[in-house]
Amino acid sequence: MGCMVSQLASKFAFFPPSPPTYQLKKWDDGKLTVVSTASPAVSIPNAADDNSLDVLVVDTKHGNKIVAFYLKNPYARLTLLYSHGNAADLGQLYDLFVQLKVNLRVNLMGYDYSGYGASTGKPSESSTYADIEAIYECLETEYGVSQEDVILYGQSVGSGPTLHLAAKLPRLRGVVLHSAILSGLRVLCHVNFTFCFDIYKVYITLLIMKRNL
């Protein structure tokens, strides 16, 4: 019974856009760029001509390949790691990323969960944890970003992986939760108790982190 309910909660937790709003294209020099497939077309610059945008494919420990956008701001001191909400992919979020990068004066790393956009695999609670861990490792190894200079931003479903990573990184600059969920089951029904098979127990993670401050 618990497994069935957990699967139901997962089913209602993930709604990747179908079809995705973008595809990846590789140039002769091996550099990746993005081609919009949305109607009307999503405005995404040619990454081969835009030095402020890196299009990345990152391997996770689950064997999936996830797509990420890294937007650079020459005036930035901090980096925002953005975990997006449901029913969206990077193609729809690019304009928002640009606004955040400019207005907040940050570098920004946004990524698509497994099964979203052009990322491979299927979305699940555990895969999103592997996704954000791989993206953070990429920030460390490829861009030399330390956790003291990282702000985690999680919207809706993105609050789950955001707090998962935050619990592992005690020296983060900050954590922002936008329309955070309490848990997978508490999105579906109004209950005030915890099941062991629930997903994204965000409220419990928040309580633990608060007590450790």
UniProtKB/TrEMBL annotation:
InterPro entries named in the record: AB_hydrolase_fold, Hydrolase_4
SUPFAM superfamilies: alpha/beta-Hydrolases
Keywords tagged on the record: Aminopeptidase, Hydrolase, Protease
Keyword Protease belongs to the record: yes
Domain of life: Eukaryota
Serine aminopeptidase S33 domain: residues covered: 77-182
GO molecular function ontology, one term from the record: aminopeptidase activity
Protein name stated in the entry: Putative serine aminopeptidase, S33, alpha/Beta hydrolase
Source organism of the structure: Lupinus albus (White lupine)
